[in-house]
Amino acid sequence: MAEFDAQDNVGTIPVQERHKVDINRLQEFMEDNVEGFTGTLTLEEFAGGQSNPTYLLSSGGEEYVMRRKPPGELLKSAHAVDREYKVLTALQNTAVPSARTYALCTDDEVIGTWFYIMEYLEGRVIWDSSAGEYSPQERGEIWDAANDAVAKLHGVDFKEVGLSDFGKHSAYIERQLNRWAGQYEYTKTGENPYMDNLIDYLPKNVPPEDSCTIVHGDLQIANMMMHKDRNEVIGILDWELSTLGNPLSDFAYLCMRYRDTLRGADLKALGIPSEEEYVEAYCRRTGRSGIEHWDYYIAFNMFRLAAILQGIAKRVQDGTAASRNAADAGAGAYELSKVAWAQIDSSVKLD
Asked: CA 296 to CA 291: how far, in whole Å?
């Protein structure tokens, strides 16, 4: 998986030229749709993120966050900010740490694309949970907090919170494989035999499903807001890929780093729990005795991420990628697909 300079993702930057909006139209929308909104609006853009441009809005002594679809031609069903808004709104009164939502706009005439407004959470985004200025104890607490937040998400009864129509209730992995294989082929910029192998193998070996929950689809510690003082998750971020599906594959996405960037690392010295300990903690929190077909779930998620990275590479080529690091992210697709295939074929030699 590609590595990035975490400092490039910290804080806000002036709104990039391609992401500028009509601030007067946005001001009018906020006045009409956001309860308690006052003052004159100012905008900055968050430096992090690679998909939906995200802005810090300030006005009347209050701060808000705006997530929007990027401008330009987009893949079908991609950048679904309306789905993000729906799931965040449904989770308001659950144990899942999440930001409060205020308003959704599906009128392209306001700022050029769909967008939504949500609460600004004051906290920390841990862009690199394996390095940075953290003690082993702090790092262990950060990883455990992420594990706990995911277990809480997978414990929500999606029917009780009004999300029965948020996705199909079965065949999640089959549908994901079909979707990402198709999008990979659409965004392909060169030959990749490892992706070809995965596209052939994965659909033929799907494990039986044992449950259906809300799944985030992009679970990583960098997509969680930590409390400003405590190592506690106060908000899971970036819900663009969320749907109903298999919680084990969702959790495996969080665990991919054990087989990739943390492969061969001294986890004890870092304070990071072992992969076995981490899986056991999740199982304890969700009432499971264990997880079968674990290597498959890891490979499946690496395949998905490789397809996503390939899509980012295509958007760089087309000039619609949101992050300054998007080109680097796209360059990791081949490397990650090789690691994914190594989970299936032990004869593949990794560096």
From this structure: 11
